[in-house]
Amino acid sequence: MLGCGESHSDKNSSSEKDATSTVSRQGSPLAIRKILCLHGGGGNVKEFQNSSGVKAISEALGSNYELVFAQAPHGGLWMRDPPEGKSKPTTDPDWASQSISILNSIVQAQGPFYGIMGYSQGAAFIPVYLSRIPDGTFQMAAMFGGYLPTTHQGLITNIKAEAPFGNIRALVWVGGKDWIANENLATPFHNPTVIRDSKAGHVVPSRSNTTFNRVIQLIKNDSKESATGEPSSGFLKTKAKAEAGDANAQNLLGVMYDVGFGVPEDDQEAEKWYRKAAAQGSTQAKTQLDNLLKLNPKLQEK
C-alpha cells in the first residue's frame, strides 16, 4: 500500500516523491481509525507531519488512530490559483482533478477511512473532495484554518450540488488572529461544530491552545453531540443572530446568500449582510464584499 508503515522515526525520504506517508503506532490490532490528512497550500508531507499541532493531535488520539498523509501536486497546491488572478475565479468543475485522483488512489489502497483532516488550503479542499466521492466514505471531517474556495466557482458548484455530504460530522476550527481562515467553510455542512480560539493564529491546534481538548473530543466522538462545542444551527438561526447584530453571523449570512448554501443565491442580500458585518469591523466581510462587487459590478450602480 502507498506509504504504509512509515513512522516519525523513519529515515528521511522525499515527500515530493511519495504520494502518501503514514504515522503508525504500536497498539491493538483491532479496528484502527484511519484519518486522511491534507497539508496546507505549498506545503509537503514531512513538514506537516512534523508540525507541533499534528504531533500533538497524533499523540492525543492514541494508538487506535492512524494518520495517513497525502502529498498535493502542483508544487504542494491542492488547487492552483486562477490563471488570471483571484479576482477572476475559475469556472472549471474539474479544476482540481489531479488532486482528486491522488486522494482516490489513497482511499482505494489504504481504506476504509474513519475521517479526513486538513489545514489551510488542505481544509479548504475537504468540501471539494467530499463533493466528488460517495457519501459515507468518511465519518468525520476536521478543518483547521480553512476557508471556502470561492475563487473556483466550478468547484463551488460541485460543492453546492452535493452538500451536506450525507450529513458528515464536521469540525471547523478558526484562530481569532488568523488572517487567512474564514468561517464560511462551515456553510456547506449540516450542523457543523465551529470552534473559535481567540488567541490562536493560522495554525493547527496544539496543546498550547485552550480549545485543544475540545478538538480531540470532537474528532473522537462519533456517536453523540458534544456538550461543549459551538454548533452552527443553520440558516434560520444564523439569520436570527445576524438580525440581532452579531457581526460573525452577519458575515456567515452574507456567505450563505452569496454562494447559495441553505438559501437561494441573492447577491443583493449578500451585499447587505457583508456591509453590515464590515461596518462592525469584520475584515473577512470586507474582503468578501470586495470580491462580490468585482464579480457583479451592477451592484455598485445602485
Features:
single chain, 302 residues, alpha/beta, Rossmann fold, seven-stranded mixed β-sheet, globular, disordered N terminus
What order do the helices and strands come in, and which of them pair?
Layout: E1 20-23, E2 33-38, H1 45-49, H2 52-61, E3 65-70, H3 97-110, E4 115-119, H4 121-130, E5 140-144, H5 153-162, E6 169-175, E7 193-197, H6 212-220, H7 234-243, H8 247-259, H9 267-279, H10 283-295
Helix pairs in contact: 7-8, 8-9, 8-10, 9-10
Mind explaining what this structure looks like?
Helix 8 packs antiparallel against helix 9 and helix 8 packs parallel to helix 10. The chain starts with 19 loop residues before the first strand and ends in a 7-residue tail after the last helix. It folds into two domains: 20-232, 3-Layer(aba) Sandwich (Rossmann fold), CATH 3.40.50; 233-302. Helices cover 35% and strands 13% of the residues. A seven-stranded mixed beta sheet has the order 1-3-2-4-5-6-7, sandwiched between helices. The chain is built from ten helices and seven strands. Mean pLDDT is 84; it is low at 1-30 and 222-233. With 302 residues, it is an alpha/beta fold.
- Overall shape: globular
Low-confidence regions: 1-30, 222-233
How would a crystallographer describe the biggest sheet?
A: 7 strands, mixed
Q: How far is it from the N-terminal to the C-terminal residue, by CA?
A: 59 Å
In CATH terms, the superfamily of the largest domain is Alpha/Beta hydrolase fold, catalytic domain
**DSSP helix count?**
10
Helix content: 25-40%
- The CATH architecture term of the largest domain is 3-Layer(aba) Sandwich
CATH class of the largest domain: Alpha Beta
SSE topology string: EEHHEHEHEHEEHHHHH
Determine the mean pLDDT: 84
**What Rg do the Cα atoms give?**
19 Å
